[in-house]
Design brief:
2,3-Dihydroxybiphenyl 1,2-Dioxygenase, domain 1, 2 domains, 4 helices, VOC family protein, Anthracycline_SecMetBiosynth, Glyas_Bleomycin-R_OHBP_Dase
Length: 271
């Protein structure tokens, strides 16, 4: 069973009004297949790529809940991590709770308001495949409180903030786990800035990236499947990526990591 270091994204799931529609959308876009729904866990439905689990879809229990992708950060001690999160200025929205024998989770908001989940693995460690087309590739948090947020993730998880000079994003940092050398290849996630160009009502949030064979083809397929483009494709030193919205309103990014160039990431607001 894979072991994910502290603070490393180990799982993602999406809360949707209509799980069946989500299965059709992500099955066609990312080539996912799906296991049976788990009625005891909100019809939680595992997604697989080439037989390996890569994500999950879950029915929203309340229409007021956001339709959104959720990021889980690994921890070996969810109770201790929740205590550190409070001490570092975060908010524990849901105290740690066991999820059968799968593991123990908690829901936390960082000091800037971005919500994420903690995950202490039981029988479910997290991704069985990542970094390949059809699977998770990266996560970034976007905030208006960069100094407080960087300090929070360092205090809680030991993640070190480094400026991402390669991508031409002066307001962006990548996070590297404690004990790893500096450099992009050792980074596990990143932090961007919600600048003045974005709508005032945009909340702090995590953005999940999925790897695809061809960014432009994935963007075109998103439109055909009822989704839309939020940020047009751009080629950067890390790959060609775009931000899209699925057919129910959940935002995520697609990236072709084999197509690289010199352009910086866009800094304007989503379309």
């Amino acid at each position: 069973m894979a072991v994910f270091p502290e603070g490393v994204p180990c799982w993602v799931d999406v809360a949707l009004p209509d799980v069946a529609a989500g299965k059709r959308f992500y099955g066609a876009l990312l080539g996912w297949t799906f296991g049976p729904a788990a009625p005891d866990y909100g019809s939680y439905t595992q997604a697989f790529h080439d037989g390996r689990n890569v994500a999950a879809l879950v029915a929203k229990p309340d229409g007021r809940m956001p339709t959104a992708w959720n990021v889980y950060l690994a921890t070996a001690d969810v109770f201790g991590t929740a205590v550190r999160a409070r001490a570092a200025g975060g908010t524990v929205i849901m105290d740690p709770v066991r999820v059968g024998d799968f593991g123990t989770m908690a829901v936390v908001a960082d000091p800037g308001g971005a919500v994420f989940n903690l995950w202490q693995a039981g029988s479910h460690a997290g991704f069985e495949e990542q970094g390949q087309p059809g699977s998770y590739g990266w996560a970034e948090v976007y905030t208006r409180a960069p100094e407080r947020v960087d300090a929070f993730y360092e205090d809680v998880f030991g993640l070190r903030a480094e400026v991402d000079d390669e991508a031409g994003r002066p307001d962006f940092v990548r996070w590297v786990p404690r004990g790893r050398p500096a450099g992009a290849r050792h980074a596990v996630s990143g932090r961007g800035l919600i600048s003045s160009g974005y709508p005032e009502e945009m909340p702090a949030h995590f953005l999940t990236y999925f790897v695809v064979e061809d960014c432009d083809a994935a963007v075109a397929a998103t439109g055909r499947l009822g989704g839309r483009v939020a940020i047009d494709p751009v080629t950067t030193p890390h790959g060609r990526s775009a931000v899209v919205v699925d057919n129910q309103g959940a935002s995520f990014a697609v990236i072709d990591t084999r197509t690289r160039g010199d352009a910086p990431h866009p800094e304007g607001p989503p379309a």
